Amino acid sequence: MLYPSIDSLMDKLDSKYTLVTVSAKRARELKEDDQRGPLVGKPKSFKPVGVALEEIVEDHLQYERKEQ
After folding, report:
1. What is the mean pLDDT of the chain?
2. Is the pTM of this model over 0.85?
3. Which of 3, 42, 43, 52 is deepest in the core (most CB within 10 A)?
4. Residue 43 CB contacts under 8 Å (≥ 6 apart), including other chains
């Protein structure tokens, strides 16, 4: 079984599109900036995308939708 599950992630965000956008942006930040460490204490994943998903499920990442 994958961690975190898609169900637990969808409880935190409003759509799969938002999930992909937020996690990809955070993963890019983790990969490009060595001084930025993970926001979770000890991530289970070694890959930046997995770490970003763990941060989302543990409420370390927030997003704000801009109205147009």
Report:
1. 86
2. no
3. 52
4. 50, 51, 54
